[in-house]
Amino acid sequence: MSDFSIVEAQGIRKVFPNMSAPVLDGVSLTVDSGDIVALMGPSGSGKSTLMNILGCLDGPSDGSYSLGGKDVSTLSSRERAWVRLHYIGFVFQSFHLISDHTVLENVTLPLYYAGVDRHEREARAVELIERVGLGHRLNHRPAQLSGGEKQRVAIARAVSGAPRVLLADEPTGALDTKTGNAVMELLLEIHEARALTLIIVTHDPEVAEFCHRKVFLRDGKIVPRGGRHAANA
Question: Which residue range(s) make up the domain with 20?
Fold first, then answer.
């Protein structure tokens, strides 16, 4: 960890039309560069909504959000897309791989959108795929892979653009315990090798134990929950 706060959210509120209460109600969260944070809480607590805002998939209704020292809370949809492409990687429970693309094609996709030339993006993708242990699967499609292999491809794709923040939404939720632990170990290896900031949404206390810090949400607010892992920094 470092003394530099890469994520600074202050007083975040999110209100959706036709809902009587805000989904997020005054959430403030600071995450240091290189930190590993677990976002936890029951269904409906606001975890996924907060993740969407931190990942610039959506903007807050009120409050401020700075990423790497830049205020991104008022950006347009197009500007948020640029931030996502260059600063943020995503790993999802359901993998979100493109079914008719090979492993290599899936991992090179963010580099294609970033304008990296074909030779370089394929070389970078192959290196990452080999790093996650799937060099022998380059030309396989997702239907030919196990759940753990799909998540390894998704992780390689998420970090192919060298993001500063990696957001993982229930990354082990579709996996058995052994495979899930292997995926978490891989995330930690990549976190250390690339000095990433890692934010994980999880219901699983075992996954949370891999993290430096746990943040608990309930009814759209961050709430204390035991000892030094309690809430905001």
Answer: 5-227
**Domain assignment of residue 232, yes or no:** no
Report if residue 233 sits inside a domain.
no
Q: Does residue 78 belong to any structural domain of this protein?
A: yes
Considering the domain boundaries, does residue 28 fall inside one?
Answer: yes
Question: Considering its fold, how many domains does the chain have in total?
Answer: 1
pLDDT digit string (tens) for 80-123? Answer: 999 999 999 999 989 999 999 999 999 999 999 999 999 999 99
* CATH code of residue 134: 3.40.50.300
3-state secondary structure the chain: CCCCEEEEEEEEEECCCCCCCCCEEEEEEEEECCCEEEEECCCCCCHHHHHHHHCCCCCCCEEEEEECCEECCCCCHHHHHHHHHHHEEEEECCCCCCCCCCHHHHHHHHHHHCCCCHHHHHHHHHHHHHHCCCHHHCCCCHHHCCHHHHHHHHHHHHHCCCCCEEEEECCCCCCCHHHHHHHHHHHHHHHHHHCCEEEEECCCHHHHCCCCEEEEEECCEEECCCHHHCCCC
pTM over cut 0.85: yes
